[in-house]
Amino acid sequence: MTPSPPLRQARLELDAPLRHPLPRAEAEALVALLRGRAPPGHPHPLFRLPEAALLLTGESLDHATAGSRLLREEAAPRLAISASLPPRPRLLVGALDWLSGLLQAETGALLGFVVPPGSHRHDMRLLAWNGRRLVPLGPLPDRMAAPGGGCSMGAFQRAAGLPAPDAEREELQPAMRRVVLAQLGRRALPVSQAALDGGFDGQGLFRAWLAAAAAGLHGFRTRLGVATLDAA
Q1: Rounded to a whole number, what is the distance in angstroms from the first to the last CA of the chain?
Q2: Which pick of 82, 87, 117, 149 has the fewest CB atoms within 10 Å?
Q3: How many folded domains does the chain comprise?
Q4: Integer angstrom CA distances of residue 150 from 90, 153, 184, 232
């Protein structure tokens, strides 16, 4: 019997402001993780997993990571994470739960993305802030595998009244927040059906637009980039 191939690693990319002041126990845990060590005695279930020590320092041959670091900024320190994680779902779930208690952000902000364990390395799930915690949004549409007749991204943008993903920040940010809040609330945004030029996967196309906008605005991208999201 041929053994199953090993599961692909997960990936965590995050750029978010930290709570200030950060509780001492969480600050010490963060420093330990940045040094590649699990914090001893921390009560969060994440740290019962031996792989937790790799949360901020894990690397992969499958894709390049930029490393994790604290960024000292005038308004508030920021945490930047770029790491690969062993393919254990509990590890990624626990990481997002623990990290949520360290962060502060505006509701509807995009703070990074994950690639779930076992998924293709370009299976990006954007991370949104719902006011309390990090929430992975749904998958992006597989434009390469989609049957012919799918709606083009340009037509979708016009039908949904969205700016181009490379628009100026002042125009892009409020539109992105509106789409993220709708995704978090599982609400449909209005789309002019007459302006579409093919099959319409509403929620998936909204997420594809978000990914393209976030790639340009925040640098959230896999090595593949987002050009393949619109073959039209």
Answers
A1: 44
A2: 149
A3: 2
A4: 36, 9, 25, 9
CA angle 47, 50, 51 (to 5 degrees): 95
Omega before residue 3 within 30° of 0, cis: no
Number of Cβ within a 10 Å radius of residue 181: 16
Q: What span, in angstroms and rounded, lies between the C-alpha atoms of 7 and 19? A: 34
Q: Which domain holds residue 130?
A: 10-136
Nearest CA to 103 among 123, 79, 81, 137? 79
The residue among 136, 170, 201 that closes a domain is 136
Note the pLDDT tens digit of each residue in 69-119: 998 877 789 999 999 999 988 999 999 999 999 999 999 999 999 999 988
Phi, psi (degrees; rounded to nearest 5) at 175? -65, -40
No. of helices (H) and no. of strands (E), the chain? 5, 6
List the structure tokens of 40.
């001893």
pTM for the structure as a whole:
0.88
How large is the greatest C-alpha to C-alpha distance in the chain, in angstroms?
60
Cβ–Cβ contacts within 10 Å for residue 194, how many?
6
Six token digits for residue 166: 């490379």
Tokens of 58: 């894990």
Q: Is 49 part of a structural domain of the chain?
A: yes
pLDDT in tens, 14-63: 999 999 899 999 999 999 999 999 999 999 999 999 999 999 998 765 55
